[in-house]
Amino acid sequence: MTDMPPAILPPERFQQRLLAWFDAHGRHDLPWQQERNPYRVWVSEIMLQQTQVATVIPYFERFMARFPDVASLAAAGQDEVLHLWTGLGYYARGRNLHKAARVVVDEHGGEFPVHSLDEMAALPGIGRSTAGAIIAQSTGRRAVILDGNVKRVLTRLHAVEGWPGRPAVERRLWALAEHYTPDERLVDFTQAMMDLGATLCRRGSPDCGRCPFEAVCVAHARGEEKRFPESKPRKALPTRTTVMLLLQDGEGRVLLEQRPSSGLWGGLWSLPQFDDAEALQAWLDARAPGSELEPAWTPFIHVFSHFRLEITPQPARIGRLDAVDEARCWYDPSDPPSIGLAAPVKALLASLAPFALTTTAGP
């Protein structure tokens, strides 16, 4: 019988292997690694949550160009922040980023509380792992991280059974992360852990042949790399339906509404939404009498993490409209304002030509 790798590696051995690999093969030229400070690291960490590096880089660079420091971000309006976030998804991250900037300015004098893991983790949108990453990456002080990449590395290395979202499994992984985290080279170590998971110990196609832990990885020794980490028990995604009103005036402008600050697409601008065609018609009769409906476009599906949304775009020509209040605006596709848009709404608006609505096909 083949000898199995040890259950726990000595931390020094783990650190040496990891850092030697990172020095030769790690990522050293990411934009947030330049001019490193708590603000830049924080923005990158929030953007990188559930989003790949290649996608984040242009967003990060645009964000830094407009908001070079936490004070400029805190002073901005939410619309402008979400406009720059449009396309990254998970918009609660953008709203929390803005909220956290204001907390840092108002309650911490414009300085991130990197002296305290608990105070960092208490900021909106920052949990224990993100707080640890910001502290380690920006100050070099010892702080433990356990993001998705690190969970995957440790789960495979030790063949940790169970979905990592379960409290008992997560406690086990935090203990392993604590065990392996060194007292020195924290900037490199935390980046190396994230790089290893992102570039070699990938979710669907791990590159075990180039991994520094190939010889000691329990999952690899069993030939079960793809079994770990275990997936979250799946439930069938429910499907909801909505009708989106594409109400266009004689100048080609489209009516938008700002969503409530919480809930679906919180704080973003969207097309007016209705449960069904009857509710949409009732709204038009009450708010925009004399409007003419065009044939509805083909429905399409937008998938969220917890449900599927079937969207039916319904174009219409306006008759007249009651006064537009602060929660509504006219959007000119030929000269779009800098506001945050829900992703499917952005796609629908991009498909519109000024002064014309197609009546035969959807986006």
TrEMBL record:
SUPFAM superfamilies: DNA-glycosylase, Nudix. It is an enzyme of class 3 (hydrolase). Its cofactor is [4Fe-4S] cluster. Its EC number is 3.2.2.31. Keywords: 4Fe-4S, DNA damage, DNA repair, Glycosidase, Hydrolase, Iron, Iron-sulfur, Metal-binding. It catalyses: Hydrolyzes free adenine bases from 7,8-dihydro-8-oxoguanine:adenine mismatched double-stranded DNA, leaving an apurinic site. CDD domains: ENDO3c, NUDIX_DNA_Glycosylase_C-MutY. GO terms for molecular function: purine-specific mismatch base pair DNA N-glycosylase activity. Residues 47-199 form the HhH-GPD domain. Binds 1 [4Fe-4S] cluster. Belongs to the Nth/MutY family. Adenine glycosylase active on G-A mispairs. MutY also corrects error-prone DNA synthesis past GO lesions which are due to the oxidatively damaged form of guanine: 7,8-dihydro-8-oxoguanine (8-oxo-dGTP). This is Adenine DNA glycosylase. The gene is mutY.
